[in-house]
Amino acid sequence: MQDGTAGYLRRERQGMLTFALFYYSKTIDCKMILPIVAYGHSVLRKVCDDIDKDYPELEKLIGDMWETMYYTNGVGLAAPQINRPVRIFVVDTDQIVEGFDEEDKKEFPNEKPVKKVFINAHVEEAYGEPWSYNEGCLSIPKVREDIMRPEHVRLRYVDEQFNEHVEDFYGVTARVIQHEYDHIDGKLFIDYLPPLKKRLLKKRLEDISKGKVRVDYRMTLPK
Fold this sequence. Notes:
The chain is of the alpha+beta class. The chain has helices spanning 4-30, 58-71, 94-98, 102-107, 171-184, 195-209, and strands at residues 36-37, 76-78, 88-92, 115-127, 131-137, 140-149, 152-158, 164-170, 219-220. The protein folds into two domains: 1-30; 34-220, Peptide Deformylase (Alpha-Beta Complex), CATH 3.90.45.10. A hairpin with a 2-residue loop joins strand 5 (131-137) and strand 6. The N and C termini lie far apart (61 Å). Residues 1-29 have low confidence and may be disordered.
């Protein structure tokens, strides 16, 4: 039995609305802003595993990591910081390099921003004169300290297509990469601090692990 032109048009509009809502829900689900794992969580102390190209939803995971990193104003993010104990991290140093003052430009005259995904990364060599730079971490909010690191790092890794690279990085970019690399090896930047400094930070670190810190992003606390 037919219900006439009006009924047909009504069904068409309803169908279009259903499709639009479905499409919208799929679109917003394509990338997600994930909670950041807080200091004290066991995943931050795991030596992470290599993966292969069949790792489940790898493309989505990488997209979510970029989305989360930019939302939290980070310049790097490692998989264990979103509760994935695998050897993946992303880096985009554009905002650091673009924000260089005149002194930075003199110290790092050849510094160019790098945006890369690093999968199954392993350090071949860290070399050059150690130098100090003020570091922070999304998993340890409101804590910043001067950390010594080697000037250069040589890294073996694969990209999103699992093509292998061996590449040397320098200056600020090398520092960001070493910071993120530490995460996939179960290390944190505060591990480089002298014992007295660590003791002075103890209460603040305990507060972070209990969620007693104000941040503009969600955090996953230790159980």
